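About this split. The held-out portion is used to measure sequence recovery: a designer receives only the structure tokens and must propose an amino acid at every position. Recovery is the fraction of positions where the proposal matches the reference. Here is one held-out target exactly as it appears in the evaluation file.
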């Protein structure tokens, strides 16, 4: 068998580039969220691969075992210091067995979230690299 080290190095480089891209998207889109208490919130705190915000949308990339849908997650918006902080929670576990390597995209309009267009937003979720 051939040497697999170049393939592994390439995968690590792609993962590092993806993390840098996700961090830059989050940094451009909003600010680092102050820690918001999640006590009493429904579901489980969902690690995100990336988050981005447009003037009217909040977009998240999350892990999926093949069945994750928008309805399985709930964005909880809290206001701190006049800025919106979104905490993404998973309500229903994805029990499928066909993982999406890069996760899946879920998005909410600012109208759905009760936010004004262009409002400052940050994320209260931990970031996690996609599982490869």
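Reference sequence for scoring:
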């Amino acid at each position: 068998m051939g040497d697999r080290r170049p393939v592994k190095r390439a995968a690590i480089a792609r993962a590092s580039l993806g993390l840098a891209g996700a961090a830059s998207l989050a940094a451009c889109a909003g600010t680092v969220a102050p820690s918001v208490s999640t006590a009493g919130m429904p579901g489980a705190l969902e690690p995100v691969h990336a988050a981005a915000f447009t003037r009217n949308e909040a977009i998240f990339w999350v892990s999926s075992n093949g069945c994750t849908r928008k309805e399985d997650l709930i964005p909880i918006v809290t206001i701190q210091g006049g800025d919106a902080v979104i905490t993404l929670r998973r309500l229903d576990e994805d029990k499928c067995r066909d993982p999406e390597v890069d996760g899946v995209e879920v998005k909410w309009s600012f109208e759905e979230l009760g936010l004004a267009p262009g409002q400052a937003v940050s994320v209260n979720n931990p970031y996690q690299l996609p599982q490869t």
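Annotator remark: The longest helix spans residues 5-29.
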